[in-house]
Amino acid sequence: MDWIILIVFAILLYWIDRAYFQYLIKKNLCVQCKYDLSYSPESCPECGMPKPNEQIRCHTTN
Ligand SMILES: [Zn+2]
């Protein structure tokens, strides 16, 4: 029954990775190097990583 543990572990890893990714986007940080992208609308000036599209539409601070 080892495969169940593997599947659960894989789902858990995927979920954590996804949550962390969304957290970085929400905080306006580069997903690659955690650079602050507040003043970089298109891509990261540090590593050149394109800024992810606005997937979180509920994030309205205004
Ligand atoms: Zn970066």
What's this entry about, in short?
This protein is an all-alpha fold and 62 residues long. Helix content is 40%, strand content 0%.
Protein model, in words:
The protein is mainly α and 62 residues long. It has a domain at 26-52. It contains one helix and no strands. Residues 30, 32-33, 35, 44, 46-47, 49 line the site of zinc ion.
The value of Rg in angstroms is 15 Å
- Helix percentage range: 40-55%
Q: Which small compounds were modeled alongside the protein? A: zinc ion
- What is the N-to-C order of secondary-structure elements (H for helix, E for strand)? H
Assembly classification: single chain
What's the rounded overall pLDDT mean?
Answer: 86
The main sheet comes to: none
Instruction: Give the helix/strand class.
Output: mainly alpha
What's the total number of strands? 0
N-end to C-end Cα span: 51 Å
Question: Tally the helices: what do you get?
Answer: 1
